[in-house]
Write a structure and sequence with these properties.
alpha/beta; Rossmann fold; 5-stranded mixed sheet; 5 strands
């Protein structure tokens, strides 16, 4: 039996910083990075706006993925957030691009091509219900902005707890 290698984790903030509420994923990833401090085997890409197959280049080589993104029509009021895994994935705004392969398809293709892609149970998605992702603004909507301090405390606490857990890597 070989020695257990620590897994590599990528923390990804999805969204667009100038499209109002769509910035929530980027803001959460930045906050997570600030609170987590330097940790071995944890890498950040806090402002990712690529989707579909382009995401493969971003996530290849990692064993665990923690994603912050926006969602519309998830069921709850704005400011509600959901914790999903690669197994329970619902289409979030930025992981889905109608003009491109969706996230699940991209992951499957990556695996078929032999890329080192996180297993579904090692993909953790924190999706925040938003109102507006069409208005050019560096501010989120007042409702989301007022919910943000609560959202950040709840979500970042869960993300930091995940970072404290070792990644299970098995062939």
């Amino acid at each position: 039996m070989g020695t257990m290698q620590p897994g590599e984790t990528l923390v990804l903030g999805m969204g667009n910083p100038i499209l109002s509420d769509d910035a929530v994923g980027i803001r959460l990833a930045r906050e997570c990075q600030a609170r987590a401090g330097e940790r071995p085997h944890v890498h950040y890409r806090v402002d990712c706006s690529v989707g579909g197959l382009e995401l493969l280049d971003v996530i290849a080589g990692y064993d665990r993925l923690i994603v912050f993104d926006a969602i519309k029509g998830g069921g709850g009021p704005p400011g509600t957030w959901y914790r999903l895994t690669g197994e329970s994935f619902r289409e979030t705004l930025n992981l889905t691009n109608i003009h491109d392969a969706n996230f699940t398809t991209a992951l499957e293709l990556g695996r078929l091509l032999g890329a080192r892609i996180p297993r579904p149970e090692n993909i953790h998605i924190f999706a925040v219900e938003i109102i507006d992702n069409f208005t050019f603004s560096e501010q989120m909507t007042p409702l989301l902005e007022s919910a943000y301090p609560r959202i950040v405390e709840e979500i970042v606490a869960e993300a930091l707890a995940l970072l404290d857990e070792p990644v299970c890597i098995s062939p």
